[in-house]
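>> received
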Amino acid sequence: METVFRLIEGLGMFLMALYLIYSLCVLLVRRRTSSPPERPLRFTFLIPALNEAAVIGATVQNLRAVAPDARVVVIDDASEDHTAAEVESLARQDPAVTLLRRRLPHARSGKGEALNWGVTQLLRLGLLPGAPLTEQVLVIFDADGRLDEGLLPEARRAFADGHVIAAQARIRVRQGGVTAPGWRGGLGRLLLRQQDLEFYVVRHIQLLRERVHTVGLGGNGQFMRVSYLAGRLEEGQAPWPPVLLEDFASGLEVRLTNPRHRLVFLESGVSQQGLTDVRRFLRQRARWTHGNLQCSPALARIWRTPMPLGARLDLTYFLAQPWLSLLTLALLLYYPARTVDHLVSGTVNWPLTVQLMALNLSVPLLWVRLYSRENRLSPRQAAFAALGMPVYLLIMTCSVPLAFRNFWRGQHGWVKTARHAEA
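>> returned
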């Protein structure tokens, strides 16, 4: 039995070493400073919307104000509220705003299918005039998104490289909208802060992934060259695969379709609402993990397609995340029980225990320090972020079994994230 315990603990040490090495690489990477000239491009914002009446008006107005030369196209996915009426009202006042409506029973089949349908309609109806398709870029935008003023100029510089097919903007989570009193309000604010901190870490991961051209697309602030999308549709291939993680899968298809295709990360970004309810948060993260599992068959193509070894390892590591998280959850159950056993028998190796705890805490605390410095948090806010991280990670870990259960049962449906109106 002791041999089994040693194997389990050896696995734990391996996972911790893998995490620390990857974290060190992410922390050390620096953004490249090259700044090519901007290329004339036509942008079209494509917003899939299902029951978004509370936020869609403000989002469209934000886009028209910040990007007056761009078009805004909203795909109403058979909403039951006043989403379509809200957009129609804006479209009557502004010819740069267009509403596309899906009807049941073909609607509400997922965000990816709504986007595939929307792009098909734009091309079929000739709604993208004014420039060759190679000079047109679609920007996938969430119904609660807000655009940074510097994002489109940065995208024009990035897409000056003809090999750049897609790009992902940095995402931030707006802090606000928590109205619940007492501990529920405190938990809601903790979730908001931790989601923004998580996307801060993701920003650094994206900088590392940009070095091997494996930047992950994240749905909100996702740029796609229209000529690529048109080519995929002509070949009978859906640009957004039918999985719950359609944004990442679409970027993976870009990378696997042609070894010369590049994906880049844009430092300017978009902001969006965060989730303040634990149940909705668990459901969202379970959906993301579930979608990751659906992408697992792509592993064989990753190792067959010509690309640098670093790109293969990065994509493999990403697709292995659900399984690594499941192992981590099992170890979280094992180590407390093993510790109690050592305490009872008096065989605790205290120096090693303290060193391992210090290593495990060092990386999260460093992220909190860097995040706090960038966002100019007060000492109290920084302490709140640091103390909230273990709670947040525990909540995220709890979503992993739910994702595996849904995946193994073949329950591939999804529940849309609800949003709230903002002042």
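>> Residues 31-280 form a domain with the Spore Coat Polysaccharide Biosynthesis Protein SpsA; Chain A fold (CATH 3.90.550.10).
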